[in-house]
Amino acid sequence: xxxxxxxxxxxxxxxxxxxxxxxxxxxxxxxxxxxxxxxxxxxxxxxxxxxxxxxxxxxxxxxxxxxxxxxxxxxxxxxxxxxxxxxxxxxxxxxxxxxxxxxxxxxxxxxxxxxxxxxxxxxxxxxxxxxxxxxxxxxxxxxxxxxxxxxxxxxxxxxxxxxxxxxxxxxxxxxxxxxxxxxxxxxxxxxxxxxxxxxxxxxxxxxxxxxxxxxxxxxxxxxxxxxxxxxxxxxxxxxxxxxxxxxxxxxx
Length: 252
Hints:
The chain has helices at 12-22, 78-84, 100-107, 148-156, 190-200, 204-225, 235-240, and strands spanning 61-66, 88-92, 111-116, 127-128, 138-145, 166-167.
C-alpha cells in the first residue's frame, strides 16, 4: 500500500463531542457506560479499534446532521464515516437555531450537496437515484444521523434543505447493523448509507474501506460487549487490511 497519503483527518464527530462536553452536556449513562473506552475510537479499551482505521482518498465530502444524544453514543456509526472521509463535517441539529457554518457549507461553490433521504417522502421532481458527474463541483452527502423518527422531524423542520436534491438510495441488501435493535431490517445504519453514496459517486475504494471498517467495528464492539477475546483473524479484518497503514498483523 502506498504511504503517500496525508495524515489522518480530524474527526468532526469527535470534535462535536468534545465541544458538547465543554458546554457541560454529558452523555446519557446507558447500560455499560462504566466500561473504560478508548477516547479516540469509543470501543472498550481491550478491543480498541484505532490500529484499524483505514486511509483512503475521497473526492466526496460528508456532512452529518446529528442529535445531542447521537454524538455521545458509542454505537454511533457516523463516527466511522468521519474517520474514513477526509472532508467531513458534523453539526448538532436544532429546530430554533441554524448553525451559520452549516449554511456556509451548503452554499460553498466547490460542493454539490445531496440530502440523503427516502424518495417516497419527497416530491418526485426533487428525487434522484444517482450522483451527477460534475468536474467543477464535488458531491457533498448530507446524512441525517439520528433515529428514523428524529430524521423525519429534522427533514420536515429544516427549511434550508428545501432547495437541495434528494438522493434516494435503492439498497440491494438488508442492513448488517447489529449494535442496536431495529424494527425494520431494511433500515440501513448511517455508515452503510454513506458507503452506498460513496460508491455512487465513484469513490469505490472508500466505499469498500468504509464497509470493511464498519464490519470490523461491529465485531470489536460486540466481542467487547460479550466479553469475548479480540479476534483479528476474520474475513472482515482481512478485507480491511489493504486500506490500513498501521494495522496490527493478522494472526491465526
